[in-house]
Design brief:
The protein has twelve helices and 18 strands. It is of the alpha/beta class. Helix 1 packs across helix 4, helix 9 runs parallel beside helix 11 and helix 11 packs across helix 12.
C-alpha cells in the first residue's frame, strides 16, 4: 500500500495572527479524509505510529520512506520546517504543502505551490479536492517538487530488496504484433531469450567475475569453467577484445557469441552496449543519450549480419543505472520509450519481444511507472 506521512502541529495552537486552530480537526477532516479518498493510499501522523522505539527515529523513517508527504506550515513551527527540510533532502517528489489562509510563506520556500484552507466548509472541501489532485498528479508524473533536488545533483543510494524467482510481464504494441515487457529476478534465471544485452564501458572491458553487475555475471557464465567453478576460457571477453580492440564510440553495440550461455540458458547472442565511460579519479558515468544503446542494439539485430541467427527476442538491463550511477527513473523512462519508438517505427523488425530486466523491487517500481508513462499496459505473461 502507498503511504502518506503528515507533518504538522498537534492539538490546539495559534496561527501567527493569534487565531486558535484545532489541528487535530484539520488533520482528521481535511487531510486524512482527503488523502484516503485515493485508492490504496494510507495516511499517518507521527502520533499514530504504534511501534516501540525512539519516536524521532520512527518519524525520520516515515519522512524518508513515505510515498507522499503533506506538510502544514500554518504556525511557522520550527519542528515542521525542520521535518520539511529533511523531506526535501531525501525525497524529490510528492511533498504537498498546505497552510491556513493568511499565513505568509517564508522566503526560502516561496517558489513552491501551497494549498490554502480556512475553517468554513466550502474552503475545506475545495482544499481537500486540491490535496487529492496534487497527490494524484505527483504520483503519476513524479515531477520534482523539492527545491533541494531541483538545484543539486543529489542521488541517494538505496539498497533495494532483490526480487526472487523469474516472472514475465508483457505489454502489446497493438497492430504491430510486437511486445515490450519486464522480466524480474537474477539474469541467470532467464531462459529462451535470444539476445542478452550487456552494459559495458566504451573500452569494452567487461566487469570482473565477482562484481555485482550483469556484465560480470554474463562474462562468468559465458566462459568455460572447470569442476571447481574457475573460468578456464574467458570466451566473451576474448571475442569482444578481438572485435572492438581498445574501445568504441559511446552507444556503440558489438555482438559476440553467447559462449556457454548457449547451452545453459538457450541464449543465441550477447550484444555489448557502450553505455558508460570512465573518468580518471571519478569512476564510470553514463553516456549522454543512453537510449541510443537501445536503438543501436535493435538495429544490430535487424542487420544482415545478425539475421542469420534468427533472433526474435532481446533482454536489456537498466543501462547506466547500476555502477554507472544514472538516475533510475529518468533513464528507464527514456529506455522504454526508445524501444517502443523503434518497434512502432520499424514494423518489419525481426525482434518480436523486447524485455527489460528488473533485479530489485525498486527497479520493478520504476519500470512499471515508465511503462505507464509510455501508455503500455502490462499483464502477466
Amino acid at each position: 500500500m502507498t503511504s502518506c506521512f503528515v507533518i504538522m502541529p498537534f492539538g490546539q495552537k495559534k496561527d501567527p495572527g493569534g487565531k486558535d486552530i484545532n489541528f487535530d480537526t484539520v488533520y482528521t477532516h481535511l487531510i486524512k479524509e482527503g488523502v484516503e479518498q485515493i485508492k490504496g493510499l494510507s495516511c499517518t501522523r507521527c502520533d499514530e505510529i504504534e511501534e516501540p522505539g525512539v519516536v524521532h527515529k520512527k518519524m525520520l523513517e516515515q519522512i524518508y520512506q513515505a510515498d507522499v508527504a503533506v506538510v502544514d506550515i500554518t504556525t511557522l513551527n520550527p519542528n515542521v520546517f525542520y521535518e520539511l527540510g529533511v523531506r526535501h533532502a531525501l525525497a524529490d517528489h510528492v511533498t504537498v504543502i498546505i497552510k491556513r489562509k493568511g499565513t505568509q510563506i517564508p522566503f526560502n520556500i516561496r517558489p513552491l505551490n501551497a494549498i490554502e484552507y480556512d475553517t468554513d466548509m466550502g474552503s475545506v472541501a475545495e482544499a481537500k479536492k486540491k490535496i487529492v489532485t496534487f497527490i494524484q498528479n505527483g504520483l503519476k508524473t513524479r515531477k520534482v517538487d523539492s527545491l533541494v533536488h531541483d538545484s543539486l545533483p543529489i542521488r541517494i543510494a538505496e539498497e533495494s530488496v532483490p526480487l526472487q524467482g523469474t516472472r514475465k510481464y508483457k505489454a502489446s504494441l497493438g497492430a504491430t504484433g510486437k511486445q515490450i515487457g519486464i522480466i524480474t529476478g537474477d539474469v541467470t534465471g532467464v531462459e529462451g531469450v535470444d539476445v542478452w544485452v550487456s552494459s559495458e564501458n566504451t573500452n569494452m572491458q567487461m566487469a570482473r567475475f565477482y562484481e555485482r553487475s550483469i556484465s560480470g555475471t554474463i562474462r562468468y557464465h559465458g566462459g568455460k569453467r572447470n569442476p571447481a567453478g574457475q573460468v578456464t576460457d574467458d570466451i566473451l571477453q576474448k571475442e569482444l577484445t578481438g572485435i572492438a580492440g581498445d574501445g568504441v564510440p559511446a552507444a556503440a553495440v558489438i555482438a559476440t557469441s553467447a559462449g556457454e550461455l548457449a547451452d545453459s540458458n538457450r541464449v543465441k547472442r550477447i550484444f555489448h552496449a557502450a553505455a558508460v565511460h570512465g573518468h580518471i579519479g571519478r569512476g564510470f558515468m553514463p553516456i549522454q543519450n543512453i537510449d541510443d544503446c537501445i536503438t543501436n542494439a535493435l538495429k544490430l539485430a535487424d542487420s544482415a549480419k545478425e539475421r542469420k541467427f534468427k533472433l526474435r527476442s532481446i533482454l536489456f538491463p537498466l543501462l547506466g543505472t547500476g555502477q554507472g550511477g544514472g538516475k533510475v527513473r529518468e533513464t528507464v523512462k527514456s529506455l522504454v520509450a526508445a524501444a517502443k519508438s523503434y518497434l512502432e517505427g520499424k514494423t518489419g523488425s525481426v525482434i518480436e519481444e523486447v524485455y527489460f530486466l528488473c533485479r530489485t523491487e525498486k527497479d520493478l517500481e520504476e519500470c512499471q511507472w515508465a511503462f505507464d508513462q509510455a501508455g503500455l499496459v502490462l499483464a502477466d505473461a
